[in-house]
Amino acid sequence: MRKLKAKRVVIKVGTSTLVYPDGSINLRAIDQLAFVISAMRHRGREVVLVSSGAIGVGLNYMGLKQRPKAIPEQQAVAAIGQTELISIYKERFAVYEQKIGQLLLTRDIFVYPKSHHNVLNTFDALLAQNIVPIVNENDTVAVDELDHETKFGDNDQLSAIVATNIGADLLIMLSDIDGFYDGNPNGDAKANLLPHIETVNQHTYELAGGSGSRFGTGGMVTKLKAAERMLNADGQMILANGEDPSIIFQILAGEPVGTLFG
Ligand SMILES: Nc1ncnc2c1ncn2[C@@H]1O[C@H](COP(=O)(O)OP(=O)(O)O)[C@@H](O)[C@H]1O
Ligand SMILES: N[C@@H](CCC(=O)OP(=O)(O)O)C(=O)O
C-alpha cells in the first residue's frame, strides 16, 4: 500500500479521457468525475480539477471532424467548446449537489506578483466555500499550446503549476494510458509499466514519447515536466488511466495503480 498525503488534491484530465476517438463526448467519464470529486469533497478533501477538452468538445459541438489549421480558428473552437464543457460539468456536478467555479488561466500568471496574489485569493475563496474550481488554460491568450508544432507547455504543466502554487499535496494526472512505461506503448508492445519513479532525470525523459491520440497535445514529456515540478515542491504525482475515473478511489486508498512519482 502506498502512503499518500492527499488533503489538497489537483486532478488533471486530458482530452483523451473526455472525448472518444471518434470525437463524441464521453459523458460517462464526465459524470464519474463529478461523482468521485463530489464524494472526495464530502469526505473533507479540497479538490481542484484541471480539465482539457475545450477543443475536443468544441469540434464535436460544431460538427467538425478535424482541428482547423489556423490558430484563430482553433481559438474560436476552444472558446465555443469551453462554454459547452463547463455546462456539462455544471449539470453533472449539480446531480451530486456540488457547486463549481471556472478559472481560465495562463501559465505565466503566477510569475507576476499581483496576478499571482489575485489568483491564489480566488482559489482560497472558492475552496473555503467548498466549491470545486475547474481550471483550463485560457486558449484565447495562451496560443502556444494550441499549436502542435510548438509544444512548450500545456495543461499538464499548468496543473502542476497550479498544484505547487496552491500547496497541493498530490497531483492526480488522468490520461488514456495506465501509467508511465519504459518505452512508448503506442509503438512498443514490449514496454513495461513503471509503478514507482522517485526522481525524474534525463534517462526518464528518454523513455517519453509524444501524444498517442488525435486530440491530445502534450504526450509524456509534458507529464514528466509536471511530475518534476511536483517533486521539486515536495509533492507527489500519480499518472493513471482515466478511462474509469473511479480509479481515483483506488489511488486515494493507496492501491498500487498507475505510476507514482515521489
Ligand atoms: N513512456 C511512455 N509511457 C506511457 N505513454 C507514453 C510514453 N511515451 C509516449 N506515450 C504516449 O502518451 C500518451 C498520453 O499523452 P496525451 O495523448 O497527450 O494524453 P492526454 O490527452 O491525456 O494529455 C499515451 O497514450 C502514449 O501513447
Ligand atoms: N486547453 C486545450 C487543451 C490542451 C491540452 O492540454 O490537452 P491535453 O493534452 O488533452 O491535456 C483544450 O481545452 O482543448
UniProtKB/TrEMBL annotation:
Membrane-traversing stretches: 47-64
Gene3D superfamilies for the chain: Acetylglutamate kinase-like
Subcellular location: Cytoplasm
The reaction(s) this protein catalyses: L-glutamate + ATP = L-glutamyl 5-phosphate + ADP
Main subcellular location of this protein, as a coarse class: cytoplasm
Residues that hold substrate according to the record: S52, D139, N155
Principal EC category: transferase
CDD domains, sorted: AAK_G5K_ProB (cd04242)
Involved pathway(s): Amino-acid biosynthesis; L-proline biosynthesis; L-glutamate 5-semialdehyde from L-glutamate: step 1/2
GO molecular function, a single term: glutamate 5-kinase activity
Binding site for ATP: K12, S175, D176, T217, G218, G219, M220, V221, T222, K223
Domain spans labelled Aspartate/glutamate/uridylate kinase: 7-235
Signal peptide positions on this chain: none
Record-listed E.C. numbers: 2.7.2.11
Pfam family, one: AA_kinase
InterPro entries linked to this entry: AceGlu_kinase-like_sf, Asp/Glu/Uridylate_kinase, G5K_ProB, Glu/AcGlu_kinase, Glu_5kinase, Glu_5kinase/COase_Synthase, Glutamate_5-kinase_CS
Entry keywords, A to Z: Amino-acid biosynthesis, ATP-binding, Cytoplasm, Kinase, Membrane, Nucleotide-binding, Proline biosynthesis, Transferase, Transmembrane, Transmembrane helix
HAMAP family reported for this sequence: ProB
Described function: Catalyzes the transfer of a phosphate group to glutamate to form L-glutamate 5-phosphate.
Family stated for the protein in its record: Belongs to the glutamate 5-kinase family.
Name of protein: Glutamate 5-kinase
